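To whoever is on call:

I kicked off a structure prediction for a single chain this morning and the downstream step that reads the tokens threw a length-mismatch warning. I double-checked the sequence; it's 371 residues and nothing unusual in it as far as I can see. Pasting both halves so you can look.
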Amino acid sequence: MKILLLSCSTGEGHNHCAKAVQNALKATGHDTDFIDMLHLFGTSGPISFESLLNVISTKVPSLFGLMYKAGERVSEMSVTSPVYIINSTYGKRLCDFINEHSYDAVVCSHLFPMETLTFIRRHYEMKAPCYGILSDYTCIPFLPETKLDAYFLPHDMVRDKCEKAGMPPEKLIVTGMPVDEAFRRPLSKPEARSILGIPEEAKVYMIMTGGIGCGDAISLCDTLLDLPDEDARIYVLAGRNEELLNGLNGKYGEDSEVRALPFTDRVCTYMHAADVLLSKAGGISSAEAAVANVPLVHTMMIPGVETQNAEFFRTLGMSLVADSNEAAARYADRIVYDGKTGAKLTEAQRKHMPADGAERIAAYITGRREL
């Protein structure tokens, strides 16, 4: 089969999600194309909206939370959303693109292309079946207004939420979150540290800020540095946020207990090297951490979907959730020095986090529906 995977760069997780499924499809011999909607049709329409979302997420996350709550209210009113209207402007061009390339199926890891495909299904002729992947642990606003052939969900608890929001039960397929095979590949802590040049004896606190670099990581580092730990090393994955990277390097220097790192494709290796991971609560990055089986503290959450993701993980015992830097530091210190706490978290991750979500989605799309 020839399959198109569509994403949008409002956070790196959506791209990771689509690429995990792409790799699973490639592994079984299928032809795939991955396209970020940011780069498909130039710089008009939803492009500016997505860029604005990234700025809000990094600069004023509280405003994002207010926007999310407003989106929930609009979604509950069952009226046509502005998100659908904006993304419908891509309809004709995307329809022509799909038909001209003779795709056998289209898979979306982001709401925006799901909205565009919904418009296409209503107004144009396109034979390829269309699927959506929900990359968070809740039913996000406006998802119920989309009309695709099936939706792949990360957990039965999320299915319940989608049903309550009015989505057709027969279209809701629980597969688990799609996570790339690399995260479940065996890699010991000493091996990961050897690859990265991290001292084996260090106590490693890893901070992840997401692909666009969200959260006040500097204040969190200051709080962690107050811990009485001479062997502590703090590694901050700053994503593509150069302002954050420069701020960390400017305050701590490049050869201190705090090591700031730019965007990297070695996230999996850094997770395996960590004694504890302190991270914002992106749906995909949280699932990756759970599949990698690293003790996880959720902190610096963007209000809205991330707080709901964190609550899902907390409910199932897969993470500790901190509402302040002091709480995050306290939880992290407990994990590092009390083996039982981290062991409970990783045991819950193994119990509740399927590692083969990408393969299960690929099987469904290609007709091997043994779910």
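Update from on-call: the warning came from a stale cache, not from the record. Cleared it. Sanity check on the structure: The CA atoms of residues 14 and 71 lie 19 Å apart.
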